[in-house]
Amino acid sequence: MSVMVNGRVVDGSGSVGEGAEKGGVLVGVLSDRQIRDHVKIVPFEDAAKRPGRISYGVSSYGYDVRVGPRFKVFTPTTRSGDIAVVDPKLFSDDMMVEVDVSSRAEDKQYVIIPPNSFALCETVEYLEIPRDVLVICVGKSTYARCGLIVNVTPLEPEWRGKVTLEISNTTPLPARVYANEGVAQLIFLKADQVCEVSYADKGGKYQDQSGLTLPKVD
């Protein structure tokens, strides 16, 4: 298979050709202008310096999303008193403590994640992914350098909704996550052909998810 590198098609043998006529797969990364014009992001924010806040908004080749004010923090002690077992097929809300910081003063709008634990949260932004685009999410370095890891699976073509994020605290100390500030960057990969089956076509289980969504198995 061939891929596009710096505008040139490179095949499996290492030879270089020009353009898709060589059988290459043209995959491009959307720029700030293309993201603004072709991807629905609500609310959409331009890049700007915001002193004292973790950055968010469109960047040269991506978009930095914000974490919303609602969190579900994992606890090994269930509310029912049962023994907690993490099972992705039977994940219970009983193991999550819900926290909403929206009513707090602005400088107090953060959640504390216990050591070696994690929290589920959702983005401020609502997104609609085009049919010929796949989105990769990576955590912002501000949190990564503190031992906080953001994990999200790729956003598939024609997926819609607010993104449920998982933030892991890998440190032995409690950690703060600030609501309504940047948390992760989205990178938009555009294919040269539209997919045969999109996330909407197959009726994906996380389509139009509302609120913080726990794991599901079809």
CATH architecture of the largest domain: Distorted Sandwich
Kindly report the name of the CATH homologous superfamily of the largest domain: Deoxyuridine triphosphatase (dUTPase)
First CA to last CA: what distance? 33 Å
The main pleated sheet reads as: 10 strands, antiparallel
Strand fraction equals: 35-45%
CATH class bucket of the largest domain? Mainly Beta
Give the integer mean of the pLDDT values.
87
Low-confidence stretches: 12-21
Number of structurally distinct domains: 2
> What is the chain-wise order of helices and strands?
EEEEEHEEEEEEEHEEEE
Give your account of this protein's structure.
By secondary structure, the protein is mainly beta. It folds into two domains: 1-26, no CATH class; 31-191, Deoxyuridine 5'-Triphosphate Nucleotidohydrolase, Chain A (Distorted Sandwich), CATH 2.70.40. The chain has helices spanning 32-38, 141-144; strands at 2-5, 8-10, 16-17, 24-25, 27-29, 40-42, 57-59, 62-74, 96-100, 110-113, 118-128, 133-139, 148-151, 160-169, 175-178, 182-191. The strands form three sheets. Strands 5, 6, 7, 8, 9, 11, 12, 13, 14 and 16 form a ten-stranded antiparallel sheet that branches. It has a four-stranded mixed sheet with strand order 3-2-1-4, with no helix packed on it. A two-stranded antiparallel sheet has the order 10-15. Strand 7 (57-59) and strand 8 (62-74) form a beta hairpin.
